[in-house]
Amino acid sequence: MAVKPKIMDYGTLRASSDSWLLVREHVQPLHIPFDFDTSMEGTMVSVIGKMGKPKGSPDTRLIAERMVSHKDIAARAKAIHQSGQGVSAQDDWLRAERELLGG
């Protein structure tokens, strides 16, 4: 059986009638199998996980392993920059995102 690759995606976290969605130019249905702060709805988040069909669902979704707000990523990127170990704003952001998502 092939190992499914991890996928990192980002967008605005939205609730639908029966699930969570990651909304950007496209809409990515999410399965979030862990407790999280539902007040994050409407905020920008980054998610890492694998595509699959959650138990009891007929649809393929991004099954989240971790999710982090862009506010938290920005704070970590700022700390990287202020430490003197930053490279550029974009590199610091990507490093912070990877660190916080564990990817």
Topology:
Elements: E1 7-15, E2 20-23, E3 27-31, E4 44-52, E5 61-69, H1 70-82, H2 89-101
Parallel strand pairs: 3-5
Antiparallel strand pairs: 1-2, 1-4, 2-3, 4-5
Question: Care to describe what's here?
Answer:
The protein folds into two domains: about 60 residues, Beta Barrel (OB fold (Dihydrolipoamide Acetyltransferase, E2P)), CATH 2.40.50; about 30 residues, no CATH class. The two termini are about 25 Å apart. It is built from two helices and five strands; from the N terminus they run βββββαα. The radius of gyration is 15 Å and the shape is globular. It is of the alpha+beta class.
Widest sheet: strand ordering? 1-2-3-5-4
Q: What's the order of the H and E elements?
A: EEEEEHH
CATH topology label of the largest domain: OB fold (Dihydrolipoamide Acetyltransferase, E2P)
Radius of gyration: 15 Å
Count of runs of 4 or more consecutive helical residues: 2
Number of extended strands:
5
Main sheet overview: 5 strands, mixed, barrel
Distance between the ends? 23 Å
Task: Supply the CATH architecture of the largest domain.
Answer: Beta Barrel
Share of helix among residues? 25-40%
Residue windows where pLDDT falls under 50 for at least 5 positions: none
Question: What features would you highlight for this structure?
Answer:
2 helices; 5 strands; five-stranded mixed β-barrel; 35% strand; alpha+beta; OB fold (Dihydrolipoamide Acetyltransferase, E2P); 2 domains; 103 residues
Compact description:
This protein is of the alpha+beta class and 103 residues long. Helices cover 25% and strands 35% of the residues.
